[in-house]
């Protein structure tokens, strides 16, 4: 122990310690001022005799740079400044600097446990809410010399303690300390040392019921706090506390007349000093939390996925570490039940898990030894243990139930939907559900899980989801039986699956009945597919009936097909009605057909109406088309307004469409302005369009500039155009450089052409490299063969065509067949045509059909003609289909070679 220093000796001692620190640091005062971010005069006066004691902020800043313990320096500064009465004691009051406190030691709940050899408790980012402003104001008033007290009132884990911790952070830079009384007991420590609290101290009364509610000491502690707040020599101090609502009500409500008043002083000290904190995050807080999550706060991001709907974010964060601890350290039976619940939720079972299901499912999650040690009441004990709550009123597995539905009196009576729960049901904590989805991602549930699901689950969606999960995990027998249960319960997807099985087995009537049940259950059905099969099987009437049933069920594809059939049959009114229904059901191309239908009948008002409908959904092409129609009708003002909508939308595709419309209408200046706008946004297509406009206007310099911009942006077409210009101008070196850039994008034709240029220039090695590069692509081989053919190198062309054919290129096979046919090798020609036809090439199919036809095999010929027609790539003209390019009208082949 030592004698208490006077104000003068304290100031001398303070300056001596600062001077010693400055000497050890090897700094001058100018350097010290720079590093401490203080003014040169402020630092000079802190060391200068005869000047007043420096401020607490200055002392803290200097101590930080000089690596000195700031608490002792602050004690000396307070004595030197006359802020402390030496008679109050010799140890300068309880507490220590705020910077030395870990928030978890002040009972702030950790939001997670970090990884590492020794797990570290972690906090999420902080989301300020309405009460934080009041707390911050209290801390600022305290920093300005006024004593304040606030007690936050809220339910468990609503963020009360964390809010207090965040509010005192600005005081750390002002040299404040913090005292948390807890030894030997909270109440005794507070009563013993409240009289010794110094100015610039935060008194931390977390869970204030332990202090103010103590039957023997609570009133005396309240009196001591009152004295601390009101004594002029002891200010400023900040007293912060937290209380649950039930305690706040107990202390502040007046007792009945004539009854004892055990909390009169506590009621007085709390009057006007409590602040209620909400249980949930409001929308502003949720948005702020979402921003922090997007910036990398994983803890908040995970919490929001679980708590976004109900807003109990702080409760989720506070309970998560304890829930994980309870899971990891649980008994084998409780872990088995939790594993069954985790697997059920991740595989698609609903929130409410029947107790009977969980009990039976848990069995195979136990080891042989744990199973042998089961007691008769193991399940009851496990569920009771899992129902015990942690912070935030969360339990690993809490009992729950579906909320009853309420209907107004006199309303229609309907059969309630079947419930998946019979008997008691439980809900897995959101955090453990999320943890299970990650930790058990690659694990397959044991047999007891599937058996319990089959025995105890009744909801169609639960059964259907588990059937699919079992199938994906190759538990095919369980998948089949669960799917049968799901279908019996009316699960549409399961009904469709079973219908396809019946269909493959040839039971079309049974399949149709199951498809219809799926429709009746309100799910999407494959009735349209079944109708297609009926049509292909030659049953148009049966197909039509199924199409109509699918259409009646609202199937968009069926509605569209029925509309087209009505149109083909000449029933325009019926077609329009079905097109309208198909569009309403989501078939966007139905609107296109509707527009065409109305245009054919000259119903321009109807066309405009449809464009207006599409425009109302924000379809920028429809807006532009509608604007064009208005302009044609002379409504320039209306057209301009719509054009402006397209421009404002900054939709590049729509702007190009609008530019094309203006170009077609002769408004070249308007079109050019729009193309320019799109080009400025970096769209190379617009640059090409602009270049083509300037080409038509014979503005060759402008053409060159635009193609250069497109080429610089990597447009292959522009690169080749510029290369051709340089080649024509004789700049072979410049052309070769541009061709090389185009070739680097993978353009096969350019690779071959570049090889030819190198060959012509005598660079045979470079040419060979490029030819070899092209030879790795069958398409390139065919191109190379065509170039050889055009150059008159017939043998070289044939050799390359054969390489392309061996690589599977149909065009090469067809050309080789034509060569064989011209040479009179009919068998060889047919072989190559057949190989090409096997790839689905329409020209080859026609050639094979012709050869079969000439051989008298009419049936086989018709088959190949039909296959060719089905490709949809041939003209409709019958003569052209039967006598394609390469044949004279009399059927004889045109020689492919000179």
TrEMBL record:
It comes from the Bacteria. SUPFAM superfamilies: HCP-like (SSF81901), lambda repressor-like DNA-binding domains (SSF47413). CDD domains: HTH_XRE. Residues 10-73 form the HTH cro/C1-type domain. InterPro entries: Cro/C1-type_HTH, Lambda_DNA-bd_dom_sf, Sel1-like, Sel1_AlgK, TPR-like_helical_dom_sf, TPR_rpt. Residues 392-422, 869-898 are annotated as: Disordered. PANTHER family: ERAD-ASSOCIATED E3 UBIQUITIN-PROTEIN LIGASE COMPONENT HRD3, SEL-1-LIKE PROTEIN. This is Tetratricopeptide repeat protein. It comes from Streptomyces griseocarneus.
């Amino acid at each position: 122990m030592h004698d208490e220093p006077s104000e003068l000796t304290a100031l001398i001692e303070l300056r001596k310690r600062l001077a010693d620190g400055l000497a050890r640091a090897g700094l001058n005062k100018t350097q010290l001022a720079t590093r401490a971010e203080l003014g040169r005069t402020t630092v000079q006066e802190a060391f200068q005799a005869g000047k007043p004691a420096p401020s607490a902020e200055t002392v803290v800043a200097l101590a930080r740079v000089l690596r000195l313990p700031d608490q002792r320096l602050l004690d000396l500064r307070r004595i030197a400044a006359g802020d402390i009465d030496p008679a109050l004691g010799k140890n300068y009051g309880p507490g220590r600097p705020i910077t030395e406190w870990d928030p978890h030691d002040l009972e702030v709940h950790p939001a997670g446990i970090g990884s590492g050899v020794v797990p570290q408790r972690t906090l999420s980012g902080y989301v300020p809410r309405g009460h934080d402003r009041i707390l911050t104001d209290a801390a600022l008033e305290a920093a300005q010399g006024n004593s304040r007290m606030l007690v936050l009132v809220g339910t468990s884990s609503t963020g009360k303690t964390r809010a207090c911790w965040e509010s005192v952070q600005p005081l750390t830079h002002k040299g404040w300390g913090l005292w948390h009384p807890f030894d030997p007991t909270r109440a005794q420590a507070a009563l013993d040392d409240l009289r010794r609290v110094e100015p610039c101290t935060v008194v931390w009364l977390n869970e204030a019921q332990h202090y103010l509610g103590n039957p023997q000491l609570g009133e005396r502690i309240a009196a001591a706090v009152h004295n601390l707040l009101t004594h002029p020599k002891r200010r400023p101090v900040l007293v912060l506390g937290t209380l649950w609502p039930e305690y706040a009500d107990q202390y502040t409500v007046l007792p009945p007349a004539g009854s004892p008043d055990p909390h009169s002083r506590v009621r007085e000290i709390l009057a006007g000093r409590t602040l209620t904190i909400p249980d949930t995050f409001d929308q502003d807080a949720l948005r702020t939390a979402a921003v922090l999550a997007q910036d990398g706060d994983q803890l908040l991001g995970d919490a929001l996925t679980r708590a976004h709907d109900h807003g109990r974010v702080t409760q989720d964060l506070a309970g998560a570490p304890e829930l994980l601890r309870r899971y990891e350290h649980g008994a084998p039976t409780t872990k088995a039940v939790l594993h069954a619940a985790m697997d059920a939720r991740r595989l698609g079972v609903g929130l409410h898990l029947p107790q009977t299901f969980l009990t039976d499912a848990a069995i195979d999650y136990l080891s042989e030894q744990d199973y042998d040690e089961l007691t008769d009441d193991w399940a009851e004990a496990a569920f009771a243990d899992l129902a015990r709550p942690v912070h935030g009123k969360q339990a690993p597995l809490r009992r729950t139930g579906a909320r009853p539905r309420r209907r107004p009196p006199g309303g229609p009576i309907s059969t309630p939907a079947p419930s998946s729960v019979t008997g008691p049901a439980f809900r897995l904590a959101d955090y453990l559900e999320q943890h299970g989805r990650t930790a058990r991602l690659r694990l397959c549930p044991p047999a007891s899980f599937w058996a319990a699901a089959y025995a105890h689950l009744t909801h169609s969606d639960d059964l259907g989801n588990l059937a699919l999960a079992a199938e994906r995990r190759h538990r095919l027998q369980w998948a089949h039986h669960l799917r049968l249960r799901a279908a019996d319960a009316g699960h549409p997807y399961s009904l469709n699956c079973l219908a396809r099985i019946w269909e493959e087995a040839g039971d079309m009537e049974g399949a149709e009945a199951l498809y219809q049940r799926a429709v009746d259950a309100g799910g999407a059905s494959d009735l349209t597919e079944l109708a297609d099969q009926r049509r292909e099987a030659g049953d148009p009437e049966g197909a039509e009936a199924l199409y109509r049933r699918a259409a009646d069920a609202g199937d968009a594809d069926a509605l569209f097909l029925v509309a087209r059939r009505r149109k083909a049959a000449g029933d325009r009114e019926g077609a329009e009605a079905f097109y309208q229904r198909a569009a309403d059901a989501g078939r966007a191309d139905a609107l296109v057909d509707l527009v065409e239908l109305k245009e054919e009948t000259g119903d321009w008002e109807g066309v405009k109406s449809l464009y207006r409908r599409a425009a109302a959904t924000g379809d920028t092409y429809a807006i532009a088309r509608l604007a064009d129609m208005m302009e044609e009708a002379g409504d320039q003002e209306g057209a301009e307004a719509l054009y402006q909508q397209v421009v404002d939308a900054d939709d590049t595709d729509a702007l190009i469409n609008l530019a094309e419309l203006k170009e077609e209408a002769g408004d070249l200046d308007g079109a050019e302005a729009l193309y320019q706008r799109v080009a400025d946004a970096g769209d190379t297509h617009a640059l090409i369009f602009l270049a083509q406009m300037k080409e038509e206007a014979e503005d060759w310099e402008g053409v060159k500039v635009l193609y250069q911009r497109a080429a610089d942006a990597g447009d292959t077409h522009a690169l080749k155009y510029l290369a051709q210009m340089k080649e024509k101008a004789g700049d072979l070196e410049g052309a070769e450089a541009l061709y090389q850039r185009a070739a680097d994008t993978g353009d096969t034709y350019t690779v071959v052409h570049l090889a030819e240029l190198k060959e012509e220039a005598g660079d045979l090695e470079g040419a060979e490299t490029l030819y070899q590069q092209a030879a790795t692509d069958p398409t390139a081989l065919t191109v190379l063969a065509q170039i050889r053919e055009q150059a008159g190198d017939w043998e070289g062309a044939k050799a390359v065509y054969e390489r392309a054919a061996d690589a599977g290129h149909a065009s090469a096979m067809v050309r080789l067949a034509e060569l064989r046919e011209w040479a009179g090798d009919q068998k060889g020609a047919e072989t190559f045509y057949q190989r090409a036809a096997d790839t689905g090439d329409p020209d080859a199919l026609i050639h094979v059909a012709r050869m079969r036809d000439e051989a008298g095999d009419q049936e086989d010929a018709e088959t190949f003609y039909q296959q060719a027609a089905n490709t949809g790539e041939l003209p409709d003209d019958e003569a052209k289909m039967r006598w394609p390019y390469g044949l004279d009208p009399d059927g004889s082949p045109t020689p492919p070679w000179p």
